[in-house]
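Morning F.,

Quick status update on the modeling queue. The single chain you submitted on Monday has been processed. Sequence for confirmation:
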Amino acid sequence: MKKHRPILLLTLALVLTLPSIVRAEVEWQTDFKKAQEEAKSNHKFLLVEFTGSDWCPPCMRLRKDVFSTREFQDYANKNFVLLELDFPRRKSLSKELTMQNQELASRFGIEVFPSIIILNSEGKKVGELLGYDPTVTVQNYISELEKARKS
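Structure tokens below.
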């Protein structure tokens, strides 16, 4: 039995860490209508991110510093359907996606990247976060999202 102890301990350690390894990241949708339908049917808010994924440094920092954290992802999974509306310069999007994103940017008056628009499950705008300050913590960012959800 002592011979197998290291293998048992290693197996136990693996089993205990497996949930954190397997934990799925949040899914960012790109189709506004589908995201809106999902938000409505699941009684969640819709977090709409207007981003320049391949050219906008603050957009990239927001992704890295906030959206990729476990804390944000756990919070978002419970409260939001996430929608990314990208305005890339180096990669191309389909014509339909480009038109959808431009129409929504116009509809919401987007002038700053990144811009986060919060819609309730009925599609009414309840909040926005414009730009990104890298000194803001994940907790502060979540607090701002909570204020929008509770308004």
